[in-house]
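Illustration: Dual specificity phosphatase DUPD1-like.
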Amino acid sequence: MRPEEEPEYQTPPTCDLLSLLLRNRRPTGAVNEVWPNLYIGDAATAQDKSLLVNLRITHVVNAADGVQHIDTGPLFYSDTNILYHGVEAADRKDFDLGPFFTETADFIHGALSHKGKVLVHCARGISRSATLVLAFLMIKERLTLIDAVQTVRQHRNVLPNVGFLNQLRHLDSSLALQRRTT
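Result:
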């Protein structure tokens, strides 16, 4: 088969994504660098300002923002130089995280392009935060969903809920369509 005849990329079904996410799981810590200067972590990491300073974190994305979740916010970090972006998301399969994909990807991209270090967290650093990082890798780094999952999984066990996986599948399909038409 010649290169111009390669089959078009197809967004994988949810069951294949789950299989990939559950394969070869091993213990991962509270915080892991999953892309250069991009970290996924849990709530305890986000609330440990001395750890954030030691990691040289300059930006925090809280994917579980709000008083009902992990109430850090810009005021919590006011005695540091950390810039904050909050997403008030519930870790439920019926919660639509899609509307936050682009704004969060823009925030992360802006931080990284100015030599910053970004922590993206939720309660456990597994579902909401992972979903936003995967969306960033797809939107800004032009990775397919499979490539993004494989990249993150090299450094951290993540498991977005099935609703978030379907939202990432939708994003993957629309980005693949854009790549084909440009």
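Reading the tokens back as a structure: Strands lie at 31-35, 38-41, 59-62, 83-86, 118-121.
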